[in-house]
């Protein structure tokens, strides 16, 4: 979304224009959902939290009449805070040891999307690898290489210096590379379907 | 593996997106909720309007506002916009009435969390939490009424009870960490107790019957919820009564109101004990019921002498004894009926808080055995809202 258009939408939102806020929602919902999903790993919880991000955003903009200099950073920070609170409230939450996003994405349409990706096994592998990272690494990798945010914005979102973010990214990539090397090729089963075979002609 | 190759693989995760139907539904819900919140609402007190009334108000306002704004628009757009508004309003209404296990229930809880997030005033926070706990009570009532097969009702009942318990732990924590005036605490305590009594009356509990309920696990959960509600109410009341005068932040202690309320509690317990005795509930020792009635007599004398702390201790002890009898539910023919009454306990007095600043809450607060609010070793916070969204 162009910056001047985005700025206009935010200003209209502060004035109570719900349609403008709807446009903002359309622009950000997918990436906020994705960001949260990779943190909480369960679709239903990601959906709840993503919806809550926008409710908070509305109240912040309209009811509190706050302005936002960097919309990207704003939404990711809200999402980040909500995920932190989510885990704080669920201190005894158990994270499945061997599950992955493919197993937990019960949405058939989403499963089919993964299956249509030419190198489905590769996606599952990289997802598993990233999921196994510690949260700091996971966060910067997602923001940098999935959401394509600049270092400056990642620094603003995470509250770290740019240098620290660069170091984290470097270490995260190193960690991912190391895990990819160590992992042996193995079938990845999608819940409710046959295991994925490692053949170039995937018949999923 | 080259860095570029690794990054290329990571880029593929961009294909993870939410479902289009969820995106659209959520958009409608959020916008409808936003419009509903824009509608000036009366202060949500512990005696807030019924959810049905709020939802109907919101729907009506939304409909009129949109229709009024559509004059001059092409007919097709008017019709489409009208349908969208009606669907959105209906969806928000549906969310308000949703129950655990239903798709919109999570949205309902999200709406509640966002309301809390922007409230900084401790009193308002506590009142909202009590209101949300009251919502859990209404859900509990509807769940029990449904009597779904396969144990699903009991699972969802447990979920609601757990959520309710969490809310009330949060209320206690809120009041402990951010002391509000004693009058407000008293009102909240009474609100909690009233709602519990209402729930008990509507669900036909307490029961000391020997027959096994159709869903015993549900009955146990409900009984425990009611017991927790009363425990929380009594704990809050204890903190009001026992707090030194020097810590009073605002209003004076409403002694007359407390006395009347405690007297009503004594009478209600006397009635309940009479019913328990009449139903033939077994007691571990002979004379248990006699001791209960004697204790209640002592409590009434304490109330007359404005020794509220002692009265409350006796009331709490009797409450615990009756709760044990209620949950165990065994039968015996050896206990003589109390001549005073054999009817079910009353739903609770109606007059105790009529003049307490208009606070006439019937909110129920089921929660496990809770310490007094001035007990620093009490249970931790559960279900606290997330902090405000400030970049």
SSE topology:
The complex is a heterodimer of chains A (204) and B (391).
Chain A: H1 3-14, H2 18-40, H3 43-63, H4 71-89, H5 101-104, H6 108-116, H7 120-131, H8 135-146, H9 151-158, H10 162-182, E1 188-189, E2 195-196
Chain B: H1 3-11, H2 20-38, H3 51-69, H4 75-97, H5 105-117, H6 122-146, H7 152-177, H8 182-203, H9 216-242, H10 255-278, H11 288-304, H12 308-328
Helix pairs in contact in B: 2-3, 2-4, 3-4, 6-7, 6-8, 7-9, 8-9, 9-12, 10-11, 10-12, 11-12
Key traits:
heterodimer, A: 204 residues, mainly alpha, Rna Polymerase Sigma Factor, Chain: A, two-stranded antiparallel ribbon, 69% helix, B: 391 residues, elongated, disordered C terminus
Number of separate structural domains of chain B = 2
Number of strands of chain A: 2
Q: What's the overall geometry of chain A?
A: globular
**Average pLDDT number of chain A:** 78
The number of helical segments of chain A is 10
CATH superfamily of the largest domain in chain A: Winged helix-like DNA-binding domain superfamily/Winged helix DNA-binding domain
The global form of chain B is elongated
Largest sheet of chain B: none
Largest sheet of chain A, order of strands side by side? 1-2
Largest sheet of chain A: 2 strands, antiparallel
Number of strands of chain B: 0
Largest interface (CB within 8 Å) is between: A-B, 68 and 45 residues
Our estimate of the beta-strand percent of chain A is: under 5%
- Give the low-pLDDT segments of chain B: 40-72, 207-212, 246-250, 330-391
Strand content of chain B is: under 5%
Structural class of chain B: mainly alpha
How many helices of chain B does DSSP assign?
A: 12
SSE order of chain B = HHHHHHHHHHHH
- Text of the CATH class of the largest domain in chain A: Mainly Alpha
Unreliable spans of chain A:
92-109, 186-204
Q: How much is the average pLDDT of chain B?
A: 65
């Amino acid at each position: 979304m162009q910056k001047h258009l985005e700025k206009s939408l935010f200003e209209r939102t502060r004035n109570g224009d719900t349609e403008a806020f709807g446009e903002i929602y359309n622009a950000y919902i997918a990436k906020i959902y994705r960001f949260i999903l990779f943190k909480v790993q369960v679709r239903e919880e990601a959906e709840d939290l993503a919806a809550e991000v926008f409710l908070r955003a509305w109240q912040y903009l309209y009811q509190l009449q706050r302005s936002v200099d960097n919309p990207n950073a704003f939404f990711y920070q809200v999402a980040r805070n909500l995920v932190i609170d989510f885990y704080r409230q669920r201190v005894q939450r158990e994270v499945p040891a061997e599950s992955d996003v493919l197993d937990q994405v019960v949405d058939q349409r989403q499963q089919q999307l993964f299956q249509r990706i030419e190198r489905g096994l590769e996606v599952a592998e990289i997802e598993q690898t990233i999921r196994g990272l510690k949260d700091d690494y996971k966060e910067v990798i997602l923001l940098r290489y999935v959401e394509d945010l600049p270092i400056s914005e990642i620094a603003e979102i995470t509250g770290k210096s740019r240098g620290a973010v660069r170091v984290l990214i470097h270490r995260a990539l190193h960690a991912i590379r190391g895990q990819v090397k160590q992992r042996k090729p193995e079938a990845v089963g999608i819940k409710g379907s046959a295991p994925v075979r490692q053949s170039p002609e995937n018949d999923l | 593996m080259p860095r570029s190759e690794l990054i290329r693989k990571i880029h593929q995760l961009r294909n993870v997106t939410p479902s289009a139907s969820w995106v659209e539904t959520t958009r409608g819900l959020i916008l409808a909720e936003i419009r509903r919140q824009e509608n000036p609402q009366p202060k949500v007190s512990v005696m807030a309007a019924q959810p049905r009334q709020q939802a109907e108000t919101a729907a009506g306002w939304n409909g009129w506002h949109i229709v009024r704004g559509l004059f001059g628009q092409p007919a097709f757009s008017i019709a489409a916009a009208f349908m969208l508004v009606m669907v959105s309003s209906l969806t928000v209404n549906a969310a308000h009435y949703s129950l655990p296990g239903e798709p919109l229930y999570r949205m309902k809880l999200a709406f509640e969390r966002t309301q809390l997030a922007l409230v900084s005033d401790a009193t308002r926070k506590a009142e909202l939490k009590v209101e949300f706990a009251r919502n859990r009570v209404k859900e509990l009532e509807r769940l029990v009424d449904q009597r779904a097969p396969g144990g699903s009702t009991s699972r969802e009942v447990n979920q609601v009870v757990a959520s309710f318990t969490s809310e009330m732990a949060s209320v206690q924590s809120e009041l402990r960490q951010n002391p509000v005036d004693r009058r407000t605490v008293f009102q909240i305590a009474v609100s909690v107790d009233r709602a519990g009594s209402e729930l008990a009356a509507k669900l036909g509990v307490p029961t000391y019957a020997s027959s096994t309920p159709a869903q015993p696990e549900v009955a146990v959960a409900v009984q425990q919820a009611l017991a927790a509600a009363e425990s929380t109410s009594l704990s809050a009341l204890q903190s009001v009564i026992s707090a030194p005068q020097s810590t009073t932040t605002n209003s004076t202690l409403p002694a007359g109101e407390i006395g009347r309320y405690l007297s009503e509690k004594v009478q209600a317990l006397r009635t309940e004990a009479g019913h328990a005795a009449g139903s033939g509930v077994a007691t571990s020792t002979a004379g248990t019921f006699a001791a209960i009635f004697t204790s209640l007599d002592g409590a009434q004398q304490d109330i007359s002498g404005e020794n509220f702390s002692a009265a409350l201790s006796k009331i709490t002890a009797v409450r615990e004894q009756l709760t044990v009898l209620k949950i165990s539910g065994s039968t015996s023919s050896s206990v003589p009926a109390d001549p005073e009454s054999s009817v079910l306990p009353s739903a609770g007095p109606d007059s105790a808080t009529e003049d307490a600043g208009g606070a006439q809450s019937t909110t129920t607060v089921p929660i496990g055995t809770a310490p007094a609010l001035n007990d620093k070793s009490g249970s931790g916070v559960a279900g606290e809202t997330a902090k405000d969204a400030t970049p």
